[in-house]
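Hi,

Apologies if this is the wrong queue. I'm a grad student, and the batch job for HAD family hydrolase from Psychrobacillus soli produced an output file that my downstream script rejects. I'm not sure whether the problem is my script or the file. Here is the sequence I used:
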Amino acid sequence: MCMIKGILFDKDGTLIEFNSLWIESTYEFLESITRIHNQEEKLEELAYKVGLEGKTVREDSALAGKTSVDLAEIISDMLKVDCEEILKELDRFYYEKVKEKPENIKPVCDLQQLFAQLKSNGLKIGIVTADNYDVTKFILDMLKLTEQVDFIATADLYDKKPNIEALQVFCDEQNLQLDEVIHIGDTSIDMEFSKHCCYGVGVLTGIGTKPALLKYTPYVLNNVAELINQDGELSLPA
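Support response: The file is valid. Your script probably expects a header line. Output copied below for reference.
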């Protein structure tokens, strides 16, 4: 087994609750954009296409693990409107909603304590998310985690997961080898990304189910809090 020196975390569904932040906002955006383009009759079909099913998100959907570009392409294709226009409005809408309702940014555990314990074990910490940088930085600042994070990779700066680019840059910047890093996430896309590093860890605080995650890794945790054992050390093979 490799010596673990770095951890890359997914963000939504892994470090913060997914549903409280994105489901309501996405519905609001779809309602707004279909109304603007006089196509309200397509709202429910469009919601389903991006991955919404009532108050849940399908784990194989665009909303579960892809980027705002992917969402914009689905919306523009169905409404027959310019994709760049949709993308610009979508990014602006999400950023404003996060700032408007910071109370919806709900950590899955005491992340400040968790990150402090990981750092005390000598681990480098990175974030790799399908979100854009401005939203991600705002969220990390709100959670008071920014100073504990060594690397941030977002979909507007790097190729989206499961492409290796973000992992490679993290390793290069932190002087790590690919097999010295683990990735922690809640979706199948996260687990596909994990194939580039030592191994992946699934968590059950997001979109992915235990059977789905176990197809990729034997390491599935209820919550990232379980990364640290009672002795304050990494609980996973290191």
